[in-house]
């Protein structure tokens, strides 16, 4: 129950890494622009460039242990690998790459299926590492404040910050309940396990609602009037980082123009 | 007026029909430290929730500062600024993503300027010794730390009265001692009136000037800790017990016929004097008796930049 | 099983944002109005969002051995309506991307559409029909949640098939649908059962809440002040 | 073998790098009552979670009943049947719709017959005095009642060892006394071995045969309550305090030069004898000293049909 969990580890890194105090705007600008370029342009070089730059930033600027970065990448990569193999082997049309005669039909592997599989794999790896940079270096609070600054509707930000806080409370409760059930053999069979999860969800639901009422009471006791106000102090965006991002994005655009035909989808 | 709170025959019935409070009359002088003592389910929390208008009496009246409490949202905001409430479970109270944001919530609701808010938040965090955790999310803190942040969130509104529900529950000895010292300091240095609900009988004599004993929604007795804990019959009838120190002397008097003073000692200081008196070597120069004797009294546990 | 960050290229990722944004905006409008008329709704809705997040982190053991999770969005649609559910889904999906590295930002549009709009709308419609037809509420909830869950995955299949319509959209849809069906059909049934249990809990302990949120049209007098014990 | 638990240089490092336990060696005899005493965050809960295989030591070995604990699911099943675990917050442990169903959860999962389950559930509920609440949802019980139901849920699996995390936290005096008496009865009548983690120093002398003091993940001392609480230096160095009774006699000895026995009294019974000895009127026929002196000893709080 107290073993490390992905959300806890990510959250801890986000709050303790050397970049946690730098401006969320800079990081959001870099990540969002790189993501958009990554998924919008057909070149396979672009995602690879994004991947390498993100990896360098994560490992050397944010000093995230390489083992953790690899662990974070490995799970989605496994899923992705499977999906891309399926795409490569079962999708596509036009020019055939190979034909496998099977007793009842001929299984055709298409060239564009394979290229799509490979392109997708590279694109997702690039986008993921870029997302991880944001996730591992930016404390959630800063994201909330940043969102409020850029005029995201207040109600959205308010609900989000309450959700963020209570996710941690409820995950802890859920883990305790899961352990308690495990200790009384609540997952000794498939059916028992389904029932156990039903019981946990039901209880968790009641506890969530009660927590909601108590939190509301506590908020009222401090003068809540329907609006959650925040102190909005944020570090100033670094000009150098913004310029570097613009430069990097321009290079990506240039590169993509010259390499767009490397993998034709 | 010198009486922040006066409750007049307050009863409260929940919508499910339970009569949680029955005919409670209670008063408080400015600067007083009051403990509501009662077993679980005796109505302590319900009573507290009437003091800042979270609950409205079904019958009876709550007076604050000489005027009956009004329940318009404007009047309630003012009441809640002046009467701070610290909940038993700090997880109910800490909802913001960082300690600083949470402590700032109250002052921001009062419409103070950002600069002013920043100042009071800083000061409140300093007072409870949590300044260095300002940027941390609450889930990084220990239970005792969360409790202190919850108190800071209330202090930042600069209240005249602080209400705390079970301030020492779930805290280890050090955490208990820290919060107790903090409360005593607030009471002495800032003349903040305090009302605690608790079932920690050993803690009460160290803290309270005056005591209300609650049972099944009724006030069964009122008085100084000394007066009430001498009535062991009463204490037991409501499923409480005497402080352990008191119990020792009660046994000595009743079972062993030792000529212990009628007014049983409640604290270690008082017990010490009593033993010395019994041993016939009471020295006149013995230092103050009813003071909190803490194992950490030479190591003030609370950081405070201002000294 | 959200679509991963970066999986959908241009123009598909933009398309799904374009489809989802109006719905989410309408949801925000509704949420805003609700939080004005009933200020207590906001913390309760937020806690419901946290619940959906935690629920989706619970791994249901699936028959095939792989793990998947309930979404809770169907039940949410029945209780608070599909519009606000789309907003909660958006937030939950962002947290899943940021705290669990699950899903992504460029695929938010597509994922909000499948999990937060398509599924919930179907669930809500089934619930509404069932209520009109006077079908017992537990059966109504079961059908709403399980078919809503299933439709979410049909939608995901369609989104993927649109991106890879080779040789045709329809064939691709069948392929993705078949791959997902193996795990999704038992899961949808699990989700349905779970929703019935939860709705039961809710009806038993939180009657006032349900009537505030206008699910059950029983006039329940809500105490003027928020209670506590 | 006569040693259910033997921990050999157990360390545990969480994946975030925190060393939560460091080189803990600990043993337990059958039928013993052991308390793990330590402040919040000292590693008590982490240690407890090693005893039933929820956590696996990063280095070192846990032995149960003479054999090293295996972590195959079959071996764990057996271990967990024999070692029951009661959580600090009963709300984390009670999830079934009624008390009876909750207590039956474990036995049913073990695949016992319906009849057998009914019998053990009945008996467990009887033991904790909650038989009349069998059909109630746990939701409606008081905290103390929930705690007893949680204990019943573990008792129904007929374990040899019961582990409890902070059994008295959040309980009022009556609840504390009830749970303590219940545990002592289980220990005496059924020879169930007990391990409690707690920071309630006043309770420990009433309960424990032997004590391990934990601080920052290390065992800093081991011995009888008597031995350990005499070393006030040690107790304070780990942010704990002596029982209040002990502290009184320590002050009398150190500050006032009263010739108190080297081995300071820990309980009211012991203190009583010490005062009488000091007063020179110790009677030989005084009854048992280290017994639990409870305000309710004439009103046994626990209902038990069989007794």
Short description:
The complex is a heterotetramer, with 1 copy of chain A (265 residues), 2 copies of chain B (307 residues) and 1 copy of chain C (229 residues). In chain A, 72% of the residues lie in helices and 4% in strands. By secondary structure, chain A is mostly helical.
Report on this model:
The complex is a heterotetramer, with 1 copy of chain A (265 residues), 2 copies of chain B (307 residues) and 1 copy of chain C (229 residues). By secondary structure, chain A is mainly alpha-helical. Chain A has helices at residues 6-16, 24-40, 45-61, 66-90, 111-137, 140-149, 154-183, 190-221, 239-259, and strands at 96-101, 106-110. Chain A has 2 domains: 1-138 and 236-265, no CATH class; 153-234, no CATH class. Chain A has a two-stranded antiparallel sheet. The mean pLDDT of chain A is 87. Chain B has 2 domains: 5-241, 3-Layer(aba) Sandwich (Rossmann fold); 245-303, no CATH class. Mean pLDDT of chain B is 88; it is low at 282-307. Chain B has 12 helices and 10 strands. The two termini of chain B are 32 Å apart. With 229 residues, chain C is mainly alpha-helical. Chain C has one domain (2-216): Arp2/3 complex 21 kDa subunit ARPC3, CATH 1.10.1760. Chain C has helices at 12-37, 41-57, 73-80, 82-100, 108-132, 137-163, 169-205, 207-212; strands at 60-61, 67-68. A two-stranded antiparallel ribbon of chain C has the order 1-2. In chain C, helix 3 (73-80) crosses helix 5 (108-132) and helix 4 (82-100) runs antiparallel to helix 5 (108-132). The radius of gyration of chain C is 18 Å and the shape is globular. Chains in contact: A-B, A-C, A-D, B-C, B-D. The interface between B and D is large, with 46 and 45 residues.
